[in-house]
């Protein structure tokens, strides 16, 4: 029984994991980015995990394409796995596979005659206990990239380890460098064919929509709807602003076997399925135009889509004499009042043509945009761009990238009805639910945070003095009044403070058009400082 278990790969594959926010099997690599490692010789849909005394052959495999590649070890915190039925084996020094056992992960980890376990892919980054590299130069390279996407500056020093001895060939090992495994059919387990596209889209949407939760309580409700990700055909649409999101959200929430019969949903699906693979904005625009003018458009919307394509062509050719604000204003106020779904579709596609980078989209402010519009934009651009294109400033939000990684892994396993679950990592804080009380509070520590927030808005000339925070004195019931005077009581009065949330929402929506993206961590640091 080993107390240390490792995923073994090369740093190039690890960097790919980091950019996409998920530990994937070789099916999930974009284009030709996968470099051969231990996953090459096991069935699709799994990531091999090795006991400490069995890592050297896998390290050799990770250098098969290039001897100059650097190996790396991802130690797995097995306590983060709640449920998993999988295959464990013993790999002999001769590369023979014996003692194959299908069992619960807990039993396999405890077995004395198991030194390799196939973990069903994908795996969240919350499973990583430490990253071990061969030298300090490689460690520093990986650390910089990891911090860029996951903001692990506060991680324990032991999270990034340099242990050259782990990468050396054991003295008891034969000098013959064979493949670590035999042929794929020697594995007594079926392949798992996985599609990662929707998972990466889901991750991108969670990232961008979380960013928009700074705008207000309505966006928080929309985010919570997406976060739940229930396997249902559609989402709660009792409220108008939630109803308008259904055609987009169902791209994620619909069961894979559900029939898509809503015409707008069909158009969205056709576009998003392809846009997730297109990196060039110009090529993406050409593809959208070709779809809008094709026979693939449902008959009900062919005329509307053709007209939309012609207006988009004017944007591409720069023959439209209207500025972007006017174009979008006309869509919001004049077009398709009887068909809100197509109005939203027109707005989003037009926005896509007007703004070619996610950063410019997130910084764009329009006087007629509501929280719903900003949420729609986040969902659409998140779906089409994926997690890999979420700006680093957003991914560095405390807890966000690790939590999104977990949600993407959970999502893929839910699509395949896999009996695989992981412990839920800490969810990133949401301003309007975690930091702001919806009722007046007498908690002194929160008063200090409220005062900081009020001063911040004052410094930026957004509110008049003390306009954000309202203070009240709550008299004890034992107080009595005689001749317009309060008689003393043994109980002191409570001082209550409340935030005018409408002012706060207005403030953060006004900050959309700042030169830099909003920094959630500044709010979190202040909250921790004043409430500790």
3D structure, described in words:
It is a single chain. The model is unreliable at 174-184 and 231-235 (pLDDT under 50). The longest helix has 16 residues, at 197-212. The chain contains 21 helices and 14 strands. 43% of the residues lie in helices and 13% in strands. It is globular, with a radius of gyration of 27 Å.
What labels would you give this structure?
two-stranded antiparallel sheet; eight-stranded mixed beta sheet; 532 residues; alpha+beta
Uncertain spans, ≥5 residues at pLDDT below 50? Answer: 174-184, 231-235
Q: Could you tell me the radius of gyration in angstroms?
A: 27 Å
Name the average pLDDT.
Answer: 87
Care to count the β-strands?
14
What summary fits the major beta sheet?
8 strands, mixed
Q: What structural class do helix, strand and pairing data support?
A: alpha+beta
Task: Report strand order across the widest sheet.
Answer: 6-5-7-2-1-3-8-9
Question: How many helices in DSSP terms?
Answer: 21
End-to-end gap: 42 Å
Helix amount = 40-55%
β-strand amount: 5-15%
Please tell me what the overall shape is: globular
């Amino acid at each position: 029984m080993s107390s240390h278990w490792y995923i073994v790969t090369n740093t190039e594959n690890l960097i790919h994991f980091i950019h996409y926010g998920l530990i994937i099997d070789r099916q999930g690599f974009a284009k030709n980015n996968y470099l051969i490692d231990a996953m090459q010789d096991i069935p699709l849909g799994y990531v091999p995990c090795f006991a400490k005394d069995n890592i050297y052959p896998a390290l050799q495999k990770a250098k098969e394409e290039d001897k100059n590649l650097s190996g790396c070890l991802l130690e797995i915190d097995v306590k983060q796995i709640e449920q998993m039925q999988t295959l464990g084996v013993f790999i002999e020094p001769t590369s023979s596979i014996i003692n194959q056992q299908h069992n619960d992960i807990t039993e396999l980890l405890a077995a004395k005659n198991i030194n390799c376990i196939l973990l069903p892919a994908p795996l969240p980054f919350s499973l990583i206990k430490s990253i071990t590299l061969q030298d300090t130069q490689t460690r520093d390279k990986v650390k910089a990239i990891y911090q860029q996407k996951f903001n692990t500056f506060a991680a324990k020093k032991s999270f990034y380890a340099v242990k050259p001895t782990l990468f050396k060939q054991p003295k008891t090992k034969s000098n013959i460098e064979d493949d670590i495994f035999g042929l794929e059919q020697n594995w007594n387990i079926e392949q798992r064919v996985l599609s990662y596209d929707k998972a990466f889209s889901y991750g991108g949407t969670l990232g961008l929509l979380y960013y928009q939760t700074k705008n207000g309580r309505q966006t928080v409700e929309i985010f919570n709807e997406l976060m739940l990700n229930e396997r249902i055909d559609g989402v709660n649409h009792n409220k108008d602003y939630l109803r308008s999101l259904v055609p987009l959200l169902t791209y994620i929430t619909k069961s894979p076997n559900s029939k898509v019969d809503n015409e707008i949903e069909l158009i969205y699906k056709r576009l998003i399925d392809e846009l997730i693979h297109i990196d060039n904005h110009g090529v993406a625009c050409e593809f959208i135009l070709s779809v809008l003018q094709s026979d693939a458009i449902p008959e009900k919307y062919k005329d509307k889509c053709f007209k939309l394509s012609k207006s988009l062509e004017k944007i591409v050719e720069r023959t439209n004499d209207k500025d972007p604000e006017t174009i979008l204003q006309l869509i919001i106020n004049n077009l398709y009042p009887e068909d809100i779904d197509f109005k939203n579709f027109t707005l989003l596609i037009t926005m896509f043509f007007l703004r070619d980078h996610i950063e410019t989209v997130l910084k764009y402010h329009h006087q007629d945009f509501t929280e719903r519009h900003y949420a729609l934009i986040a969902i659409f651009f998140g779906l089409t761009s994926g997690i890999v294109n979420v700006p680093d400033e957003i991914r560095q939000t405390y807890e966000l990238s690790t939590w999104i990684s977990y949600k993407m892994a959970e999502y893929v396993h839910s699509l395949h009805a896999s009996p695989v679950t992981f412990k839920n990592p800490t969810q990133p804080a949401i301003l309007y639910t975690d930091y702001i009380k919806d009722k007046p509070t007498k908690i002194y520590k929160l008063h200090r945070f409220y005062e900081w927030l009020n001063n911040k808005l004052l410094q930026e000339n957004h509110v008049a003095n003390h306009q954000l925070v309202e203070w009240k004195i709550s008299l004890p019931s034992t107080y009595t009044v005689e001749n317009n005077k309060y008689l003393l009581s043994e109980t002191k009065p409570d001082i209550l403070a409340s935030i005018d949330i409408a002012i706060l929402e207005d403030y953060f929506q006004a900050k959309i058009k700042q030169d830099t993206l909003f920094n959630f961590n500044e709010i979190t640091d202040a909250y921790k400082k004043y409430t500790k």
